[in-house]
């Protein structure tokens, strides 16, 4: 991949954020449209970003189930869309991407929350992810 992992993660965040706004049949077209609007991506970058986004989409239900089970009093329906998107992405990376250590996944999520979330987002995202990975090997 030509772009940095951090740049790719920011794109994945934006794509995951769109997930709740489009019905499933439209997601594919919206993903293509989003990627076409990224002039700095090579065709290889687009393919890699797209493939991971599609895999994340396929696991949203599973990720949301885990989030709901481990966060007492915080169903995914109550979370802000920005915070939820960041948590979904981080949990996906921690669970399914062997190249992302737990601490890196959490730290990167907190950084995204600082940039895109509200004042309380970094603390909230850190706390939720801490619960989700509690006792997990790093």
Quick take:
By secondary structure, this protein is an all-alpha fold. It has a single domain, classed as NusB-like (N-utilizing Substance Protein B Homolog, Chain A), CATH 1.10.940.10. It is built from six helices and no strands.
**Can you write the helix and strand succession as a string?**
HHHHHH
Task: Report the sheet with the most strands, covering strand number, pairing sense and barrel closure.
Answer: none
Number of helices: 6
Subunit organisation of the chains: single chain
Q: What top-tier CATH class fits best?
A: Mainly Alpha
Mean pLDDT: 92
State the distance separating the first and last CA atoms: 25 Å
Per CATH, which architecture?
Orthogonal Bundle
Beta-strand percentage? under 5%
CATH superfamily: NusB-like
Can you describe this structure?
Helix 4 packs antiparallel against helix 5 (102-116) and helix 5 (102-116) packs antiparallel against helix 6 (121-133). The chain has 138 residues and is mostly helical. The protein is globular and about 40 Å long. Helices cover 72% and strands 0% of the residues. The chain has one domain: N-utilizing Substance Protein B Homolog, Chain A (Orthogonal Bundle).
Q: What labels would you give this structure?
A:
single chain, 138 residues, mainly alpha, N-utilizing Substance Protein B Homolog, Chain A, 6 helices, 0% strand
Break the fold down into its secondary structure elements and pairings.
Elements: H1 5-18, H2 24-36, H3 43-70, H4 81-96, H5 102-116, H6 121-133
Helix pairs in contact: 1-3, 1-4, 2-3, 3-4, 4-5, 4-6, 5-6
